[in-house]
C-alpha cells in the first residue's frame, strides 16, 4: 500500500518532471523527494522515472501507474475537500430568525453578503415574535437570530451590536405626552407602562414602572393597539415611526434614555462555522454600528 507522502511525491513529480519544482510544491527538500521516489521504485521493482542530467521522464511502468492512480486520487481529494467544507459548516443550511420588519431588512442584506461568500450554503430566513427567539434557538428551529440586545441568558452568545437607534415612547395620540418634544425616564412613574414578554430587554421602565397590574400583550401590533386605546405607554426603538405609523399612536423621543441596540444572538454550543461566518458578513455589511435618529 502506498503511503500518502509517497503518492503525493510520485504524482507531483509525474506532473512537474522536475525534482526542484516538485520539492517546492510539496514544501520538501529536493533530497527528500529523491529519497521518497527511490524508496517507491525499490518497492515496485522497476524505475518509475527515466532520469538524465537534463530531464526527467516517466518510464512506461510509471506512465501506467500515473494513468491509473491520478483519477482515483483526484476523487479522493475532492471527497475530502467536501468533507472539510461540511465540517467547517460552509455548506448545508443556515436558519436565521429575525424580529420585526427593520431587523428583517437588515437581515436580508446580511444574507445576500453571506451567500456571495458561501454560495454552497443555503440561508433560510423566517420571522419570529420576540418571545419565540430563545425557544427557537434552543429547539434548533433557528441557528442564529437578529434581535434586541442585551439578551443575558445562560448559554446565549451575543454577537457585536449592528445597529443603535434612539429609544422612544409610544403614547396615545390624545395623551398630554403626545404634545411634548421629549419625555424623560422620570415621566414613566406617572403612567401605566405596558408589558410584552421579551421586548426591549433592560428597557427604561424595568425599575421605574408602577407596581400596579398592567395590561400585557403578546405581539407588537397588539401592544400598539392597547397604546392607541389609552391603556398605557410602551418604550420602542425609533424604527417604529417608519414601520408602525398609526393615527392613534404618537412616538416621543426620550431625552435621557440609552439607545436600543440590535445584534445577532446564538447558542454557545451552536457556534458553527456557518454562524460565525454569517456574523462576520453582517458586521462587515454595516461596517460601523449606525445610530438611527
UniProtKB/TrEMBL annotation:
Species annotation: Streptomyces mashuensis
InterPro entries (alphabetical): LysR_HTH_N, LysR_subst-bd, WH-like_DNA-bd_sf, WH_DNA-bd_sf
Location of the region described as Disordered in the Swiss-Prot/TrEMBL record: 198-217
Domain HTH lysR-type: 1-59
Protein name from the UniProt record: LysR family transcriptional regulator
GO molecular function: DNA binding; DNA-binding transcription factor activity
Domain of life: Bacteria
CDD domains, A to Z: PBP2_LTTR_aromatics_like
GO cellular component terms, semicolon-separated: protein-DNA complex
Homology family: Belongs to the LysR transcriptional regulatory family.
Gene3D superfamilies for this protein: Periplasmic binding protein-like II, Winged helix-like DNA-binding domain superfamily/Winged helix DNA-binding domain
Keywords: DNA-binding, Transcription, Transcription regulation
Amino acid at each position: 500500500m502506498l503511503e500518502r507522502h509517497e503518492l503525493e511525491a510520485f504524482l507531483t513529480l509525474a506532473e512537474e518532471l522536475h525534482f526542484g519544482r516538485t520539492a517546492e510544491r510539496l514544501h520538501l527538500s529536493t533530497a527528500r523527494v529523491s529519497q521518497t521516489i527511490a524508496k517507491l521504485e525499490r518497492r515496485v521493482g522497476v524505475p518509475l522515472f527515466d532520469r538524465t542530467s537534463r530531464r526527467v521522464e516517466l518510464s512506461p511502468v510509471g506512465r501506467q501507474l500515473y494513468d491509473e492512480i491520478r483519477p482515483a486520487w483526484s476523487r479522493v481529494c475532492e471527497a475530502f475537500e467536501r468533507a472539510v467544507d461540511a465540517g467547517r459548516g460552509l455548506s448545508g443550511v443556515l436558519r436565521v430568525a429575525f424580529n420585526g420588519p427593520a431587523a428583517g431588512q437588515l437581515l436580508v442584506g446580511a444574507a445576500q453578503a453571506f451567500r456571495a461568500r458561501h454560495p454552497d450554503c443555503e440561508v433560510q430566513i423566517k420571522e419570529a415574535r420576540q418571545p419565540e427567539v430563545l425557544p427557537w434557538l434552543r429547539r434548533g428551529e433557528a441557528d442564529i437570530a437578529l434581535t434586541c440586545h442585551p439578551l443575558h441568558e445562560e448559554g446565549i452568545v451575543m454577537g457585536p451590536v449592528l445597529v443603535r437607534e434612539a429609544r422612544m415612547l409610544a403614547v396615545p395620540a390624545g395623551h398630554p405626552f403626545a404634545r411634548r418634544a421629549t419625555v424623560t425616564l422620570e415621566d414613566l412613574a406617572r403612567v401605566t407602562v405596558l408589558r410584552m414578554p421579551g421586548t426591549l430587554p433592560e428597557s427604561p421602565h424595568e425599575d421605574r414602572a408602577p407596581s400596579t397590574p398592567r395590561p400585557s400583550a403578546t405581539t407588537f401590533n397588539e401592544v400598539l393597539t392597547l397604546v392607541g386605546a389609552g391603556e398605557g405607554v410602551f418604550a420602542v426603538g425609533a424604527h417604529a415611526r417608519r414601520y408602525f405609523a398609526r393615527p392613534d399612536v404618537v412616538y416621543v423621543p426620550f431625552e435621557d434614555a440609552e439607545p436600543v441596540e440590535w445584534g445577532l444572538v446564538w447558542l454557545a454550543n451552536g457556534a458553527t462555522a456557518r454562524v460565525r461566518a454569517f456574523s462576520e458578513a453582517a458586521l462587515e455589511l454595516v461596517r460601523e454600528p449606525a445610530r438611527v435618529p
